[in-house]
Design goal:
eight-stranded parallel beta barrel
């Protein structure tokens, strides 16, 4: 009897010890949830890591004058957002998965071989209307230059490739020869993009530039030329891309006379400063303009009257219209005059789409999401194909972070 009681007691203690140890972490599991193994175990264990292309880190914007998400009467909104998702699951067979909605997965095998597979994004959310060899373009504004580095830059570039983007308008306000984002950083980014089939333009702008005596534009030109001189062929910007937006000038809203003065200043600036600067630098000249720039100005060349949008089309390589509406038909309709001017003067035209706005539902695709936008831009692309046999046109999306974060 005493022996039976002792035996029962030992069994009870054993069970209690076993239960108490179940809630303790495995000493071979790191804080990140990754299984660590001995050399002998590694021959049979596998680790699978899945990276979410939709998880993002918000970068600061080094913009002066032209803000990434602000514009008067152009459809750009304000504020920024970021999202980041990740989870870890450990299985009984020593597999670790960091999972969120994903596009790429890398598997390390016992033979130390790495294979990468790509998961398809949700159906219909990708811009797939451009095919290899197409000369019509798809561009994207990239305002925060600090995000070109590291995993964020790679994530956005992969997203661009996935969507057949062919050109990036990179704001260089935050670029300096020796700053946190220096010439070497940008050269590496431009080269990487070039290797992925994407060219990069130097974007910036400030309405103050149009004021007589303002030297802000010359500072941009000096930086552009210094960068180009230090860059190899596959590291150079293909264009000056200017987003000056004269309608941001306070005098623009002071009445008819104030608006006329500002638009004439803009015309003078474009023809007398910007065009010669681009020619001297040996580069293309591209402009972002609103779809309503139908003011009549004096042509700085000869003093004759001319519609401002036509003046831009006549003297520039590309005009990018902020055609911010949420249907293909509306985007085309508001840009009809500029399309006609572009065809008349052999100027490339790009129609821009907005992904965020506080100016009304019809201005952006924020409410509808990626799939709807892809459908509408495919329609718009087909409409333009019917008008431009030479494919001297493009579409563009404002802007990389907002587009990336846009709901499906």
């Amino acid at each position: 009897m005493i022996l039976n009681k002792l035996t029962a007691g030992v069994l009870l203690v054993s069970v209690m010890l076993s239960v108490s140890s179940c809630g303790k972490p495995n000493p071979d599991i790191s804080e990140g949830g990754k299984q660590t193994t001995t050399q002998a175990e590694s021959a049979t264990d596998q680790t699978t890591t899945t990276t979410d292309i939709d998880s993002t880190t918000n970068g600061s914007t080094g913009i002066s004058g032209s803000q990434a998400d602000s514009s008067a009467s152009s459809g750009m909104g304000t504020s920024s957002s970021a999202k980041s998702t990740a989870s870890s699951v450990l299985s009984s067979k020593n597999k670790t998965t960091s999972a969120s909605p994903s596009t790429t997965a890398t598997k390390a095998t016992s033979a130390n071989q790495t294979t990468t597979t790509t998961k398809a994004p949700p159906s219909g959310t990708v811009m797939d209307f451009r095919k290899p060899g197409d000369t019509n373009t798809l561009g994207v504004w990239w305002w925060s230059i600090s995000t070109i580095k590291g995993s964020t830059g790679q994530k956005y570039l992969d997203f661009c490739v996935l969507n057949s983007v062919s050109e990036i308008y990179l704001c260089i306000d935050g670029m300096s020869q020796s700053g946190s984002t220096n010439f070497a950083d940008v050269r590496a980014f431009v080269k990487k993009a070039s290797n992925m089939g994407i060219r990069v333009a130097a974007l910036t702008g400030d309405y103050k530039w149009i004021q007589p005596g303002n030297n802000g534009f010359q500072n941009y030109v000096d930086k552009f030329v210094s960068y180009q001189n230090a860059a190899a062929a596959d590291e150079k910007f293909y264009s000056m891309h200017l987003d000056v937006e004269p309608h941001q000038h306070p005098d623009f809203k002071t009445g008819t006379a104030g608006r006329a003065k500002i638009m004439q200043w803009f015309a003078d600036f474009a023809i007398n400063k910007a065009v010669p600067a681009a020619q001297s630098a040996g580069t293309l000249l591209e402009w972002d303009i609103p779809f309503w720039m139908s003011d009549t100005v004096k042509n700085p060349e000869n003093g004759s009257n001319i519609i401002l949008a036509e003046l831009m089309a006549k003297h520039c390589d590309t005009i990018t219209i902020m055609s911010y509406r949420d249907t293909a038909q509306a985007m085309h309709s508001v840009s009809a005059e500029e399309i006609a001017f572009a065809k008349k003067h052999g100027c490339k035209i790009v129609l821009g789409a907005e992904t965020y706005s506080t100016e009304g539902d019809q201005v952006s695709f924020m409410e509808e999401g990626k799939a709807y936008m892809a459908t509408e831009l495919n329609k718009l692309n087909n409409m333009l194909l019917g008008e431009f046999a030479d494919r001297n046109f493009g579409l563009a999306i404002h802007q990389i972070k907002r587009w990336f974060d846009l709901k499906n």
